[in-house]
Write a structure and sequence with these properties.
The structure is a homodimer.
Chain A lengths: L4 E8 L6 E7 L16 E7 L3 H12 L5 E7 L8 H13 L7 E6 L1 H13 L6 E5 L2 H7 L4 E6 L2 E8 L4 E5 L8 H18 L1 H15 L3 H20 L15 H11 L6 H18 L5 H13 L14 H10 L11 E4 L5 E4 L3 H11 L3
Parallel strand pairs in A: 2-9, 3-4, 3-5, 5-6, 6-9
Antiparallel strand pairs in A: 1-2, 7-8, 10-11
Helix pairs in contact in A: 2-3, 4-5, 4-7, 5-6, 5-7, 5-9, 6-7, 8-9, 8-11, 9-10, 9-12, 11-12
Cofactor (chains A, B): Co(2+); Zn(2+); NAD(+)
InterPro entries (chains A, B): Dehydroquinate_synthase, DHQ_synth_AroB, DHQ_synth_fam, DHQS/DOIS_N, DHQS_C
Main location (chains A, B): cytoplasm
Chain lengths: 370, 370
């Protein structure tokens, strides 16, 4: 497992906060991929109770070459634990082992572990180095780029957080083979997203390679992860602090977050909400006259082939659309109560805009499972 | 109260994060001083239950000209409430009023309010604008510059936080007249600090003007606040993220934090810990052969005239020095367990270095009240 097969690299260019994303097979315990990250006596691997038995020992083994003390902290698994209380377990572990401000945090897990570890690194002593080792496809294509870290608040998802960049991201594609098929599908939602908003060539490629991806063929995964990271890097590079352009990355997320929040965090996977949410956002784009019905149908078919839901959940039996609107108004992207939607402004191009409530209600009514 | 008397300005130059500190009389409710800060529909004034009845209404009145919704949140007063739980009250207030990411937070209070409001602003939706309106001398001379925000953790002070810059700082000197004398003295500790580490001319000036300062003469306060902010700005401008030089601002703080933590947060005011801590750090500098006994005596006399303690507290009847060392080893400035002391490397010049435990023990034994 020492050789780097299919090793690819995407460079995230953010001035003094620049870092590389390494993508390939057998990277997890290859000492070469950790060279160049900041040294420091202590390391804390933050993971969860599902991932820890699979990979924590291998990571701790390779890190023991770089740090004289390597500890592992396994958090409870799941979006419902993405809270301040869980985050505090990281601070407790750091402080009780007298971790200094040169201690490196390694996030070994999916998006929840990555978001919490990154936020812990951003806040501990006002900032310590951290390295992302994402073990889900979702985390590899989405959390690898952008520096978004956060925890949830009872009144909203990802409401408390920071923009904080890792030292590097290590995407070992082999670990995706242990991922439950449902989670692999959830990750594919974020890959698909990059097609309609930025690259119709990627949409073509996905239509040809969807089966290879779902079968975890390494070369297909490598292309999907690399291309997704590249597109996201281009967008984030132009707008690190999410003041404008970067918002297009939230295609499908406004509706998707409403589903996640309305069903209770953890019931729908994030990617599942994004899958159904992209269909709803595409349908809204069609209602606004920006794309035709064939485009919506094509996207919907691909989302279905990825093993994702294409219809939203019923969140309220009496006033379903009203409940969606209520939840979307507290979204971070809302401004003074006006919901901002990412729409497809012609294939391969996204835009952010408001929409009349009546139109949004019609889309929700049409796109939700009866 | 509309005219700006004695108005002074210090510019903090941090590239795109630059901001002004406005210093003068009658600034609190002068509309002119808030012009230029980012506009936005909502504003939340975060203050405490002591300051709120004195100044919140005046601030809310002037802010109503700039924001259509101005809310006030009064937190419990005191260092013991500088916790995540209290911080969460700010997030609750923001989320329950659907505050968007253009909402401005105004910190109206002392260092605790400023640190918590700044950290809340840094984290809420990954960053919203905030304005500091410090109402204590300590906050005006210390928290105004540097962007340090934080909350305490049961295992250490200011352990969880962020570097986050305000839009501007409004130092109204009139409000210092309502400050209890003990808190005014605590603020003077941070003013005195700038003498030995950077500017012996300031030390001379303080020896002449100590009575005027303690009597809250506006022109004396204006000079002390302005000069302190200038010196701190020079140091911070060269080292925003506290990688080296900036550490000299912690003169007296390593010993002082041990006193604060050892006595239980809130028993000693921060500035009181720094007062006694500066004497201990000066004595350590003398032990290291860097300054003479006359220098230590001169500094000690000035600290005494400021109404501050010049001897450390007894933290442990059996092994007092051991308890100090134990507490200082978990300080953020410690590296791999080695305590880093800020010492006076000749009058007006500071340095950061380690020291043998035996020497530190001797200093503690000599400088603590029996």
């Amino acid at each position: 497992m020492q050789g780097i097969s299919f090793a690819q690299q995407v460079s995230i260019d953010l001035g003094e906060r620049s870092y590389p994303i390494l993508i390939g097979s057998g990277l997890l315990d290859d000492p070469a991929v950790y060279e160049g990250a900041k040294p420091g006596t202590q390391a804390l691997i933050v993971t969860n109770t599902v991932v820890a038995p699979l990979y924590a020992e291998r990571l701790a083994g390779v890190l023991a070459r770089r740090h004289s003390a390597v500890r592992t902290l396994a958090l409870p698994d799941g979006e419902q634990f993405k809270t301040w209380e869980t985050l505090n377990l990281v601070f407790d572990a750091l402080l009780s082992s007298s971790a200094d401000r040169k201690t490196t945090l390694y996030a070994l897990g999916g998006g929840v572990v990555g978001d919490m570890t990154g936020f812990a690194a951003a806040c501990y002593m006002r900032g310590v180095p951290f390295v992302q080792v994402p073990t889900t496809l979702l985390a590899q294509v989405d959390s690898s780029v952008g520096g978004k870290t956060a925890v949830n608040h009872p009144l909203g998802k990802n409401m408390i957080g920071a923009f904080y960049q890792p030292q590097r991201v290590v995407c070992d594609l082999d670990v995706l083979k242990t991922l439950p098929p449902r989670e692999l599908s959830a990750g594919l939602a974020e890959v698909i997203k990059y097609g309609p908003i930025a690259d119709m060539g990627l949409l073509d490629w996905l239509e040809t390679n969807m089966e290879a991806l779902r079968a975890c063929e390494i070369s297909a995964l490598a292309h999907a992860v690399k291309r997704s990271c590249q597109i996201k890097a281009d967008v984030v590079g132009a707008d690190e602090r999410e003041s404008g352009l970067r918002a297009i990355l939230n295609f499908g997320h406004t509706f998707g977050h409403a589903i996640e929040a309305g069903m209770g965090y953890g019931a729908w996977l994030h990617g599942e909400g994004v899958g159904a949410g992209m269909v709803m956002a595409a349908e809204l784009s069609r209602e606004l006259g920006l794309v035709d019905a064939a485009f919506v149908q094509r996207l919907k078919a691909l989302i279905h082939r990825a093993g994702l839901p294409t219809r939203g959940a019923i969140l309220d039996e009496n006033d379903n659309a009203g409940r969606y609107l209520q939840l979307m108004r507290v979204d971070k992207k809302a401004e003074s109560g006006e919901i901002r939607f990412v729409v497809i402004d012609g294939p391969g191009r996204a835009a952010v805009r408001g929409a009349p409530d009546a139109l949004v209600r019609a889309v929700i009514d049409r796109c939700c499972a009866a």
